[in-house]
Description:
By secondary structure, this protein is an alpha+beta fold. The protein has helices at 20-30, 72-77, 142-148, 159-172, 183-208, 211-229, 238-244, 249-256, 263-280, 289-295, 301-312, 316-322; strands at residues 15-17, 35-38, 46-53, 56-63, 66-70, 82-90, 93-97, 100-104, 108-113, 118-122, 126-134, 153-154. Helix 5 runs antiparallel to helix 6 and helix 9 crosses helix 10.
Amino acid sequence: xxxxPVPTRTPLPIIQTAVFDxxxxxxxxxxxxxxxxxxxxxxxxxxxxxAQFGPVLxxxxxxQPHRISRTPRHIARSSPGYYKVSFQLKGTxxxxxxxxxxxxxxxNVAIYDTDLPYSMQFDDAYSxxxxxxxxxxxxIPESPFKxxxxxxxxxxxxxxxxxxxxxxxxxxxxxxxxxxxNWASATPMARSTVDMLTVLFNDHLNRTTPTAEASKSxxxxxILGYIDAHLAEPSLTPDEIAATHHISRRQxxxxxxxxxxxxxxxxxxxxxxxxxEDLANHALADDPVGRIGARWGFGDPAHFSxxxxxxxGMSPRDFRQTCA
Length: 324
């Protein structure tokens, strides 16, 4: 599977415009292909500021009422494999994706998939923080993700009360992220941000799903966390994971049945993701490619190179050169 490329957008200064066509061009080029439509007969101005740190693009948008939509036509032309997370600062947003429609009010967060059609309607002046990042970064498999996608998650209590000051602070200090210009500092910040969102959405999932499903989800998240913590160990196998969590191998496989990967496939992909991050990290530029593979459980350099090329479409050495 070829992963989505890291977005490489130039951070924008705050731009204000009264020309809607210019606004449509700005948001379409800064995020993914989409249409923006004004409300006829109503004045418009908008402001957009963005900063990128590692694979995460953070943007603060403030604008007058309008609508946006991403259609199957846009997706056919560009399907980059990103998730977007919107944190409502002011005003409201009506988000629709597939059969779900949700109203976001200040303090709400929602996640949605850019590879599926969606629309957003802003009925009044609004301000919103938007985070866009490759799907692989979110520690939630596909099946539970469908449950939380396009759902309003409140940041007024629980885990949300911890995440809210972080997102609010990021929106207020977006320019400070411009200093994170290299992978050595940008990548940990990006991972920490997405990990915090993963915890928020998992908490919401576990509090809102039926008891039986919640128990399965909690166990799956525990297993995913265990895998993440032991990726560097070559001995990490489905049998070892099942034994550690006091379940049978059959039960473990059944937990992963609705997911995109098998147990072994998930382990391999997470290891490859970590290798990709290390290869792009300028602070590790002197580490041989084989050593980076071995650090994340690939004992055979040839097997590592073959697996990396199969996943990302290029060899580890070629990928490192593209990040130089």
